[in-house]
Design a protein that fits this description.
Elements: E1 40-43, E2 60-76, E3 85-98, E4 103-108, E5 120-124, H1 137-145, H2 154-161, H3 168-183, E6 188-190, H4 193-205, E7 216-219, E8 222-225, E9 231-238, E10 243-246, H5 251-254, E11 257-259, E12 268-269, E13 274-278, E14 286-296, E15 303-306, E16 313-318, E17 321-331, E18 338-345, E19 350-357, E20 363-367, E21 370-374, E22 379-385, E23 391-398, E24 402-409, H6 466-490
Parallel strand pairs: 8-17
Antiparallel strand pairs: 1-24, 2-3, 2-5, 2-6, 3-4, 4-16, 5-15, 7-9, 9-13, 10-12, 10-14, 11-13, 14-17, 15-16, 18-19, 19-22, 20-21, 20-23, 23-24
Length: 498
Amino acid sequence: MLSASSVSAASSGTTGARHGRPVRRPAAALLLSGLVAAAALTGAGPAVADDPGRHHGGAAAVLDGLKTFDSAVLRVPGENGAPGRGQELPAGLFEMTVDGGGRIKTYGVDLHNATQNQATYLETPWAETSLGANRNAGKIRWILQHSYPQVDDLAALAEAAGTGPLTERTAAAGTQVAIWRYSDGADVTAADKQAEKLADWLHRSARTTKEPRASLTLEPAAVSGSGAERLGPVTVRTDAEQVSVSPPVDAAASGIRVTDAKGAPVTSAGDGDQLFFDLPEGTADGSAALTVQAATSVPVGRAFTGIGRTQTQILAGSSESTVSARATAAWAAAGPAPALTARENCARGGVDITAANRGDAPFTFEAAGAGHSVPAGETRTVTLPVAEDQAYDVPVTGSGGLRKSFTGVLDCATAGSVLPGGESGTDGGEGGGLGVHSAQRPVPAADGSGARGPAGDLAATGGSDVTPMIAAVATGLLVVGGAVVFLLRRRKPGAEGG
């Protein structure tokens, strides 16, 4: 495996992490982009298995806003050690509409990061979020399993927690407050007395539990080979009883089938089943994709991250929802046959690009200005450093005519956990207070109606009055950047000054 040091020459001064959290890193090695999307193919040779994009499997959903909530009070530190002040904000359950059918409920796990209503969210492993570096992430899942809405008998919940009567609003607020104490290390209390008692009980009682596995994924997400054999295996991982298997879109014309290891056609599969791409003899070099889909409840505790800059969520409840996953295959009769995938790696603070070469010749590629070679039959992973909270656009070019770009936003730490200059402001501990950088105004989503929260504060959303200012600044930066490029191109060789 190639380590991050193999590309360190293309970046400057990668720094360490404190309290187990990633810190800001320079991104000189990467072409940063103001546009955020899933992994995009910009042109590739015939023998490249295309990465299926950022969504490697599970549910995709659209945020409908904060729906069941009450008030909470966040205490933020004052300047120069002065006593902090209380900031009132809404706390409770968000709802999302799942692509293909179904609804899910979530709580936020990044208090100071704004949510954008109607943002698209993708089911994501903890390792690709701030939860991956948070030693208390398992306690958050325990809270979800033992509170509202998983426990919808509010009288029983109140009895267990030793509170007075609870409503859906106060139960949701108390649960969110307890989660924030672990996800953000926040000094936060529920405004309602009974909700605060619930938050204290949940916070005190929480025990570490394991991360739930994905609702549906395919491993690996890309395979390759010579085409003389079945390509695979691709293993189904799911909690669903059964998934439907869809062959490549042009299967009828190409003759490509999805089969089991013995060559029998497969149209449905279960957890642990292996799928193969079966190619007719003499098939020309090329690539194909298969899709699996199921209807199931997404496991409580699965993380959801947005496409773009929006608050990370953690799943609290799910109806039967549509989940899907995609795997690709590529083949070449001779020469390299690489399968490329990319994942965000929060532990290393960057993006892992993995190349598996199942051809009969070395595969060479260049990523962010550094060259790499993968011998035939081997796999290499390169970690490219990316700055926290920064949009990235990683161009990859390689033998066989490969041209590919992986894009996204690295969001590995809560907004309150990273200080200017790269220092951690909180470790997410049980009694942790907020760091200096956390003194910014909290910005959870509004209730989707545009109305003020229960205490009269307008919660910030993607449609807030800050949005036009951000757009104006972004436009200005693009104009300035264009002007700089224009001037540089007009400079004559050897000219001095600007």
